[in-house]
Design brief:
The chain is α/β, with parallel strands linked by helices. It folds into two domains: 209 residues, 3-Layer(bba) Sandwich (FAD/NAD(P)-binding domain); 86 residues, D-Amino Acid Oxidase, subunit A, domain 2 (D-Amino Acid Oxidase, Chain A, domain 2, 2-Layer Sandwich). Strands 5, 6, 10, 11, 12, 13, 14, 15 and 18 form a nine-stranded mixed sheet that branches. A six-stranded mixed sheet has the order 8-2-1-9-17-16. The longest helix has 18 residues. The protein is globular and about 60 Å long. The chain binds flavin-adenine dinucleotide.
Amino acid sequence: MTRHTLVMASFLLETHVMGAGPTGCMVALALAQQNQRVVLFDPQAFDALTSRSRAYAITHSSRRLMQSLGLWDELQKDLVAFEQLDLRDLAAGRQVIFVAEDLAKKNRGHRGIGWILDHRPLMTVLLRKLQQSGLVEMHLGGEAAPIPSPDSLVIAADGPSSPTRKSWGIHCWQHRYRQGCLTAKVVLRGIQANQACELFRPEGPLAVLPLGNDHFQVVWSAPMERCQERCALAPSEFLDQLAGILPQGIDPDLLLDQPKAFPQQWMLAHRLSRGRGVLIGEAGHRCHPVGGQGLNLCWRDVDVLVRSVQKGGSAKRIAARYGRQRWIDLILVGSATDLLVRCFSNRISLLVGLRRIALQLLKHSVGLRQLSLRAMTDGPLQIGRALPD
Ligand SMILES: Cc1cc2nc3c(=O)[nH]c(=O)nc-3n(C[C@H](O)[C@H](O)[C@H](O)COP(=O)(O)OP(=O)(O)OC[C@H]3O[C@@H](n4cnc5c(N)ncnc54)[C@H](O)[C@@H]3O)c2cc1C
Protein backbone atom coordinates (compact mmCIF):
# COMPACT_ATOMS: atom_id res chain seq x y z
CA MET A 1 0.00 0.00 0.00
CA THR A 2 1.43 3.41 -0.93
CA ARG A 3 1.79 6.18 1.61
CA HIS A 4 -1.04 8.09 -0.12
CA THR A 5 -3.56 5.24 0.12
CA LEU A 6 -2.53 4.61 3.72
CA VAL A 7 -3.41 8.20 4.67
CA MET A 8 -6.67 8.04 2.67
CA ALA A 9 -7.67 4.76 4.31
CA SER A 10 -6.90 5.99 7.80
CA PHE A 11 -8.76 9.26 7.15
CA LEU A 12 -12.00 7.30 6.94
CA LEU A 13 -11.67 5.97 10.47
CA GLU A 14 -13.59 7.81 13.18
CA THR A 15 -12.34 7.41 16.73
CA HIS A 16 -14.13 8.05 20.01
CA VAL A 17 -11.87 8.66 22.99
CA MET A 18 -13.52 8.26 26.40
CA GLY A 19 -11.46 10.24 28.92
CA ALA A 20 -9.36 13.40 28.52
CA GLY A 21 -6.65 12.65 31.10
CA PRO A 22 -3.01 12.72 29.99
CA THR A 23 -3.46 9.44 28.05
CA GLY A 24 -6.76 10.32 26.35
CA CYS A 25 -5.53 13.77 25.30
CA MET A 26 -2.25 12.35 23.99
CA VAL A 27 -3.96 9.69 21.86
CA ALA A 28 -6.51 12.23 20.55
CA LEU A 29 -3.70 14.56 19.49
CA ALA A 30 -1.62 11.78 17.93
CA LEU A 31 -4.62 10.51 15.93
CA ALA A 32 -5.64 14.00 14.79
CA GLN A 33 -2.07 14.46 13.52
CA GLN A 34 -2.63 11.27 11.49
CA ASN A 35 -5.68 12.96 9.86
CA GLN A 36 -8.21 10.99 11.92
CA ARG A 37 -11.49 12.49 13.04
CA VAL A 38 -11.60 12.26 16.84
CA VAL A 39 -14.49 12.72 19.27
CA LEU A 40 -13.14 13.28 22.80
CA PHE A 41 -15.40 13.01 25.85
CA ASP A 42 -14.76 13.63 29.55
CA PRO A 43 -17.19 14.36 32.41
CA GLN A 44 -14.69 16.91 33.79
CA ALA A 45 -14.44 20.47 32.46
CA PHE A 46 -11.21 22.15 31.22
CA ASP A 47 -10.33 23.70 34.63
CA ALA A 48 -10.78 20.44 36.56
CA LEU A 49 -8.76 18.51 33.97
CA THR A 50 -5.78 20.84 34.34
CA SER A 51 -5.85 21.30 38.12
CA ARG A 52 -4.43 18.01 39.54
CA SER A 53 -1.46 18.67 41.86
CA ARG A 54 0.97 16.07 40.51
CA ALA A 55 4.24 15.97 38.65
CA TYR A 56 5.25 13.17 36.30
CA ALA A 57 8.68 11.65 35.77
CA ILE A 58 9.12 11.65 31.99
CA THR A 59 11.40 9.07 30.40
CA HIS A 60 13.11 8.99 26.99
CA SER A 61 10.32 6.87 25.44
CA SER A 62 7.88 9.67 26.33
CA ARG A 63 10.35 12.31 25.14
CA ARG A 64 10.37 10.68 21.70
CA LEU A 65 6.55 10.63 21.52
CA MET A 66 6.32 14.27 22.66
CA GLN A 67 8.89 15.29 20.06
CA SER A 68 7.03 13.52 17.27
CA LEU A 69 3.83 15.38 18.23
CA GLY A 70 5.50 18.80 18.48
CA LEU A 71 4.97 19.04 22.25
CA TRP A 72 8.60 18.92 23.34
CA ASP A 73 9.63 22.42 22.28
CA GLU A 74 6.38 23.93 23.48
CA LEU A 75 6.82 22.44 26.96
CA GLN A 76 10.59 23.03 27.10
CA LYS A 77 10.40 25.72 29.79
CA ASP A 78 8.26 23.45 32.01
CA LEU A 79 10.43 20.33 31.66
CA VAL A 80 12.90 20.09 34.55
CA ALA A 81 15.78 17.83 33.54
CA PHE A 82 17.51 15.69 36.13
CA GLU A 83 21.07 14.74 35.31
CA GLN A 84 21.64 12.55 38.35
CA LEU A 85 19.50 9.81 39.84
CA ASP A 86 20.54 9.00 43.39
CA LEU A 87 19.32 5.55 44.42
CA ARG A 88 19.75 4.50 48.05
CA ASP A 89 18.74 1.51 50.10
CA LEU A 90 18.73 2.83 53.65
CA ALA A 91 18.40 -0.57 55.36
CA ALA A 92 21.25 -2.06 53.29
CA GLY A 93 23.37 1.10 53.56
CA ARG A 94 24.13 1.21 49.82
CA GLN A 95 23.98 4.05 47.28
CA VAL A 96 24.19 4.07 43.46
CA ILE A 97 24.30 7.26 41.41
CA PHE A 98 23.16 7.12 37.79
CA VAL A 99 24.53 9.84 35.51
CA ALA A 100 23.99 10.78 31.84
CA GLU A 101 26.88 8.51 30.72
CA ASP A 102 24.82 5.52 31.91
CA LEU A 103 22.24 6.25 29.19
CA ALA A 104 22.25 4.68 25.72
CA LYS A 105 24.40 6.80 23.33
CA LYS A 106 21.39 8.12 21.38
CA ASN A 107 19.80 9.42 24.57
CA ARG A 108 22.88 11.18 25.93
CA GLY A 109 22.59 14.29 23.73
CA HIS A 110 19.34 15.26 25.44
CA ARG A 111 20.88 16.44 28.72
CA GLY A 112 18.59 14.61 31.11
CA ILE A 113 18.38 11.08 32.46
CA GLY A 114 14.73 12.07 32.68
CA TRP A 115 12.51 15.11 33.23
CA ILE A 116 9.86 16.18 35.67
CA LEU A 117 6.77 17.78 34.20
CA ASP A 118 3.93 19.28 36.18
CA HIS A 119 0.37 18.18 35.35
CA ARG A 120 -0.98 21.71 34.78
CA PRO A 121 1.29 22.93 31.92
CA LEU A 122 1.12 19.48 30.30
CA MET A 123 -2.69 19.39 30.31
CA THR A 124 -3.04 23.06 29.35
CA VAL A 125 -0.86 22.64 26.25
CA LEU A 126 -2.54 19.33 25.28
CA LEU A 127 -6.10 20.66 25.66
CA ARG A 128 -5.26 23.92 23.80
CA LYS A 129 -3.75 21.99 20.89
CA LEU A 130 -6.83 19.78 20.75
CA GLN A 131 -9.14 22.80 20.80
CA GLN A 132 -7.21 24.28 17.86
CA SER A 133 -7.36 21.09 15.80
CA GLY A 134 -10.06 21.06 13.16
CA LEU A 135 -10.28 17.27 13.45
CA VAL A 136 -11.09 16.98 17.16
CA GLU A 137 -14.60 17.43 18.49
CA MET A 138 -14.43 17.98 22.26
CA HIS A 139 -17.23 17.30 24.73
CA LEU A 140 -15.94 18.25 28.16
CA GLY A 141 -17.74 18.84 31.46
CA GLY A 142 -20.29 16.10 30.82
CA GLU A 143 -21.65 17.65 27.60
CA ALA A 144 -23.34 14.83 25.68
CA ALA A 145 -21.25 13.28 22.89
CA PRO A 146 -22.63 11.63 19.74
CA ILE A 147 -22.98 7.83 19.82
CA PRO A 148 -20.07 6.16 17.97
CA SER A 149 -21.02 4.81 14.54
CA PRO A 150 -20.73 1.01 14.11
CA ASP A 151 -17.41 1.41 12.19
CA SER A 152 -15.61 3.68 14.62
CA LEU A 153 -12.74 2.76 16.91
CA VAL A 154 -13.67 3.29 20.57
CA ILE A 155 -10.77 4.10 22.89
CA ALA A 156 -11.34 3.78 26.63
CA ALA A 157 -8.88 6.13 28.38
CA ASP A 158 -11.14 6.72 31.36
CA GLY A 159 -8.74 5.87 34.17
CA PRO A 160 -8.31 3.03 36.69
CA SER A 161 -12.00 2.59 37.54
CA SER A 162 -12.90 2.80 33.82
CA PRO A 163 -16.71 2.69 33.45
CA THR A 164 -16.17 1.80 29.77
CA ARG A 165 -14.06 -1.27 30.66
CA LYS A 166 -16.80 -2.39 33.06
CA SER A 167 -19.52 -1.85 30.47
CA TRP A 168 -17.56 -4.08 28.06
CA GLY A 169 -17.47 -6.79 30.73
CA ILE A 170 -13.66 -6.90 30.91
CA HIS A 171 -12.34 -8.08 34.29
CA CYS A 172 -8.89 -7.41 35.75
CA TRP A 173 -6.15 -9.13 37.68
CA GLN A 174 -5.33 -6.92 40.58
CA HIS A 175 -3.42 -6.73 43.79
CA ARG A 176 -4.02 -3.96 46.31
CA TYR A 177 -0.83 -3.04 48.15
CA ARG A 178 -0.96 -2.52 51.88
CA GLN A 179 1.22 0.44 51.03
CA GLY A 180 -0.33 3.66 49.82
CA CYS A 181 1.57 6.76 48.87
CA LEU A 182 1.27 10.45 49.52
CA THR A 183 2.40 13.25 47.26
CA ALA A 184 3.47 16.69 48.47
CA LYS A 185 5.34 19.64 46.99
CA VAL A 186 8.04 21.06 49.24
CA VAL A 187 11.02 23.45 49.32
CA LEU A 188 14.24 21.52 50.08
CA ARG A 189 17.72 22.67 51.07
CA GLY A 190 20.95 20.70 50.54
CA ILE A 191 20.01 18.94 47.27
CA GLN A 192 20.96 19.95 43.74
CA ALA A 193 18.20 21.31 41.48
CA ASN A 194 19.14 18.74 38.78
CA GLN A 195 19.02 15.69 41.03
CA ALA A 196 16.25 13.12 41.60
CA CYS A 197 16.35 10.56 44.42
CA GLU A 198 14.72 7.19 44.99
CA LEU A 199 15.19 6.10 48.60
CA PHE A 200 14.22 2.55 49.51
CA ARG A 201 13.04 2.44 53.11
CA PRO A 202 11.54 -0.51 55.02
CA GLU A 203 8.09 1.16 55.09
CA GLY A 204 8.23 1.80 51.30
CA PRO A 205 10.09 3.85 48.67
CA LEU A 206 10.35 7.64 48.76
CA ALA A 207 10.94 9.55 45.51
CA VAL A 208 12.20 13.14 45.50
CA LEU A 209 11.63 14.80 42.13
CA PRO A 210 12.99 18.24 41.14
CA LEU A 211 10.42 20.85 40.03
CA GLY A 212 12.86 23.71 39.34
CA ASN A 213 14.91 25.93 41.68
CA ASP A 214 14.51 24.56 45.20
CA HIS A 215 11.00 23.10 44.70
CA PHE A 216 10.58 19.29 44.81
CA GLN A 217 7.76 16.77 44.77
CA VAL A 218 7.94 13.89 47.21
CA VAL A 219 6.13 10.62 46.50
CA TRP A 220 6.24 8.94 49.90
CA SER A 221 5.08 5.31 50.18
CA ALA A 222 4.08 3.77 53.51
CA PRO A 223 1.16 1.77 54.94
CA MET A 224 -2.01 3.56 53.83
CA GLU A 225 -3.14 4.54 57.36
CA ARG A 226 0.23 6.15 58.01
CA CYS A 227 -0.04 8.14 54.74
CA GLN A 228 -3.47 9.39 55.78
CA GLU A 229 -2.22 10.35 59.26
CA ARG A 230 0.68 12.27 57.74
CA CYS A 231 -1.65 14.12 55.36
CA ALA A 232 -3.68 15.30 58.36
CA LEU A 233 -0.62 16.72 60.18
CA ALA A 234 -0.03 20.46 60.58
CA PRO A 235 2.56 21.67 57.99
CA SER A 236 5.34 22.07 60.60
CA GLU A 237 4.77 18.52 61.95
CA PHE A 238 4.67 17.12 58.41
CA LEU A 239 8.00 18.81 57.60
CA ASP A 240 9.51 17.50 60.86
CA GLN A 241 8.55 13.93 59.93
CA LEU A 242 9.94 14.38 56.42
CA ALA A 243 13.17 15.84 57.83
CA GLY A 244 13.50 12.70 59.96
CA ILE A 245 13.67 10.38 56.96
CA LEU A 246 15.53 12.43 54.33
CA PRO A 247 19.26 11.70 54.02
CA GLN A 248 21.52 13.78 56.23
CA GLY A 249 22.14 17.24 54.77
CA ILE A 250 18.77 17.50 52.96
CA ASP A 251 16.28 19.64 54.88
CA PRO A 252 12.68 20.56 54.09
CA ASP A 253 11.91 24.27 54.57
CA LEU A 254 8.35 24.78 53.37
CA LEU A 255 5.25 22.81 52.40
CA LEU A 256 3.82 24.13 49.11
CA ASP A 257 0.55 22.20 48.80
CA GLN A 258 -1.78 20.00 50.80
CA PRO A 259 -0.34 16.43 50.90
CA LYS A 260 -2.70 13.85 49.42
CA ALA A 261 -2.77 10.08 50.04
CA PHE A 262 -3.53 7.50 47.33
CA PRO A 263 -4.09 3.75 47.58
CA GLN A 264 -1.75 1.71 45.40
CA GLN A 265 -2.50 -1.29 43.25
CA TRP A 266 -1.07 -3.44 40.50
CA MET A 267 -3.78 -4.03 37.93
CA LEU A 268 -3.95 -5.53 34.44
CA ALA A 269 -7.10 -6.03 32.39
CA HIS A 270 -7.75 -9.61 31.18
CA ARG A 271 -7.84 -8.27 27.65
CA LEU A 272 -6.89 -4.92 26.10
CA SER A 273 -9.34 -5.01 23.22
CA ARG A 274 -12.89 -6.17 22.65
CA GLY A 275 -14.45 -5.87 19.20
CA ARG A 276 -13.69 -2.35 17.98
CA GLY A 277 -12.84 -1.11 21.48
CA VAL A 278 -9.44 -0.78 23.16
CA LEU A 279 -8.28 -0.03 26.68
CA ILE A 280 -5.36 2.37 26.99
CA GLY A 281 -3.59 4.03 29.91
CA GLU A 282 -4.79 3.31 33.40
CA ALA A 283 -8.09 1.99 32.04
CA GLY A 284 -6.08 -1.12 31.13
CA HIS A 285 -3.25 -1.29 33.65
CA ARG A 286 -1.76 0.25 36.75
CA CYS A 287 1.48 -0.19 38.62
CA HIS A 288 3.15 1.06 41.79
CA PRO A 289 4.65 4.55 41.33
CA VAL A 290 8.18 3.34 42.24
CA GLY A 291 10.48 4.30 39.38
CA GLY A 292 7.92 6.77 37.93
CA GLN A 293 6.86 4.33 35.18
CA GLY A 294 3.06 4.89 35.19
CA LEU A 295 2.40 7.62 32.65
CA ASN A 296 5.31 6.54 30.44
CA LEU A 297 3.75 3.10 30.13
CA CYS A 298 0.40 4.73 29.27
CA TRP A 299 2.07 6.79 26.54
CA ARG A 300 3.74 3.70 25.07
CA ASP A 301 0.15 2.39 24.66
CA VAL A 302 -0.57 5.54 22.63
CA ASP A 303 2.49 4.96 20.46
CA VAL A 304 1.55 1.33 19.72
CA LEU A 305 -2.12 2.16 19.06
CA VAL A 306 -1.25 4.94 16.61
CA ARG A 307 1.17 2.62 14.78
CA SER A 308 -1.63 0.06 14.56
CA VAL A 309 -3.96 2.69 13.07
CA GLN A 310 -1.23 3.64 10.57
CA LYS A 311 -1.02 0.01 9.46
CA GLY A 312 -4.70 0.28 8.46
CA GLY A 313 -7.62 -2.15 8.43
CA SER A 314 -11.01 -2.08 10.12
CA ALA A 315 -11.46 -0.75 13.66
CA LYS A 316 -11.77 -4.34 14.87
CA ARG A 317 -8.48 -5.34 13.24
CA ILE A 318 -6.67 -2.27 14.59
CA ALA A 319 -7.99 -3.00 18.09
CA ALA A 320 -6.98 -6.68 18.02
CA ARG A 321 -3.48 -5.85 16.72
CA TYR A 322 -2.97 -3.30 19.51
CA GLY A 323 -4.28 -5.75 22.12
CA ARG A 324 -1.73 -8.38 21.07
CA GLN A 325 1.25 -6.02 20.95
CA ARG A 326 1.02 -4.41 24.40
CA TRP A 327 1.17 -7.48 26.66
CA ILE A 328 4.89 -8.04 27.06
CA ASP A 329 5.82 -4.46 27.99
CA LEU A 330 2.94 -4.23 30.50
CA ILE A 331 3.75 -7.55 32.14
CA LEU A 332 7.49 -6.85 32.36
CA VAL A 333 7.17 -3.33 33.80
CA GLY A 334 4.31 -4.32 36.15
CA SER A 335 6.30 -7.30 37.45
CA ALA A 336 9.53 -5.30 37.82
CA THR A 337 7.87 -2.54 39.89
CA ASP A 338 6.06 -5.17 41.99
CA LEU A 339 9.31 -7.05 42.62
CA LEU A 340 11.15 -3.85 43.56
CA VAL A 341 8.49 -2.90 46.12
CA ARG A 342 8.32 -6.38 47.64
CA CYS A 343 12.09 -6.97 47.82
CA PHE A 344 13.11 -3.51 49.02
CA SER A 345 10.35 -2.60 51.53
CA ASN A 346 11.54 -4.71 54.46
CA ARG A 347 14.40 -5.52 56.84
CA ILE A 348 14.46 -9.31 56.21
CA SER A 349 18.15 -10.10 56.69
CA LEU A 350 18.43 -12.48 53.74
CA LEU A 351 16.91 -9.89 51.39
CA VAL A 352 18.96 -7.04 52.87
CA GLY A 353 22.11 -9.13 52.19
CA LEU A 354 21.06 -9.84 48.58
CA ARG A 355 20.22 -6.16 48.04
CA ARG A 356 23.65 -5.20 49.33
CA ILE A 357 25.30 -7.48 46.76
CA ALA A 358 23.02 -6.35 43.91
CA LEU A 359 23.57 -2.65 44.61
CA GLN A 360 27.32 -3.13 45.00
CA LEU A 361 27.39 -4.80 41.57
CA LEU A 362 25.29 -1.99 40.09
CA LYS A 363 27.58 0.63 41.61
CA HIS A 364 30.70 -0.86 40.06
CA SER A 365 29.37 -2.03 36.68
CA VAL A 366 28.66 0.56 33.97
CA GLY A 367 27.14 -2.24 31.85
CA LEU A 368 24.57 -3.11 34.53
CA ARG A 369 23.71 0.54 35.11
CA GLN A 370 23.22 1.02 31.35
CA LEU A 371 21.02 -2.07 31.14
CA SER A 372 18.77 -1.06 34.03
CA LEU A 373 18.51 2.55 32.85
CA ARG A 374 17.68 1.37 29.33
CA ALA A 375 14.81 -0.78 30.67
CA MET A 376 13.51 2.08 32.82
CA THR A 377 13.76 4.86 30.29
CA ASP A 378 13.16 3.23 26.89
CA GLY A 379 11.14 0.24 28.08
CA PRO A 380 12.33 -3.36 28.52
CA LEU A 381 11.45 -4.27 24.92
CA GLN A 382 14.07 -1.84 23.61
CA ILE A 383 16.97 -3.71 25.25
CA GLY A 384 19.28 -4.92 22.49
CA ARG A 385 17.44 -2.97 19.79
CA ALA A 386 18.61 0.07 17.83
CA LEU A 387 16.90 3.14 19.25
CA PRO A 388 15.16 5.62 16.98
CA ASP A 389 16.64 9.18 17.06
C1 LIG B 1 0.60 9.27 43.70
C2 LIG B 1 0.90 8.99 42.27
C3 LIG B 1 2.10 9.42 41.74
C4 LIG B 1 2.40 9.16 40.40
N1 LIG B 1 3.61 9.57 39.89
C5 LIG B 1 3.91 9.30 38.59
C6 LIG B 1 5.18 9.67 38.02
O1 LIG B 1 6.06 10.24 38.65
N2 LIG B 1 5.41 9.38 36.71
C7 LIG B 1 4.48 8.75 35.95
O2 LIG B 1 4.75 8.49 34.76
N3 LIG B 1 3.26 8.39 36.45
C8 LIG B 1 2.97 8.65 37.75
N4 LIG B 1 1.75 8.27 38.26
C9 LIG B 1 0.78 7.61 37.39
C10 LIG B 1 0.00 8.63 36.57
O3 LIG B 1 -0.64 9.57 37.40
C11 LIG B 1 -1.03 7.89 35.73
O4 LIG B 1 -0.33 6.94 34.99
C12 LIG B 1 -1.80 8.81 34.80
O5 LIG B 1 -2.57 9.74 35.50
C13 LIG B 1 -2.74 7.96 33.94
O6 LIG B 1 -3.41 8.79 33.04
P1 LIG B 1 -4.77 8.33 32.36
O7 LIG B 1 -5.11 9.44 31.42
O8 LIG B 1 -4.64 6.96 31.85
O9 LIG B 1 -5.84 8.26 33.55
P2 LIG B 1 -6.42 9.44 34.44
O10 LIG B 1 -5.38 10.46 34.68
O11 LIG B 1 -7.06 8.78 35.62
O12 LIG B 1 -7.56 10.10 33.52
C14 LIG B 1 -8.80 9.45 33.27
C15 LIG B 1 -9.80 10.47 32.73
O13 LIG B 1 -11.01 9.76 32.41
C16 LIG B 1 -12.11 10.56 32.80
N5 LIG B 1 -13.32 9.73 32.97
C17 LIG B 1 -13.76 9.10 34.08
N6 LIG B 1 -14.91 8.47 33.81
C18 LIG B 1 -15.20 8.68 32.51
C19 LIG B 1 -16.25 8.29 31.64
N7 LIG B 1 -17.28 7.54 32.05
N8 LIG B 1 -16.20 8.67 30.35
C20 LIG B 1 -15.20 9.43 29.89
N9 LIG B 1 -14.18 9.86 30.67
C21 LIG B 1 -14.18 9.48 31.96
C22 LIG B 1 -11.64 11.24 34.07
O14 LIG B 1 -12.40 12.41 34.31
C23 LIG B 1 -10.17 11.55 33.73
O15 LIG B 1 -10.04 12.81 33.14
C24 LIG B 1 1.45 8.49 39.59
C25 LIG B 1 0.22 8.08 40.15
C26 LIG B 1 -0.04 8.31 41.48
C27 LIG B 1 -1.36 7.85 42.06
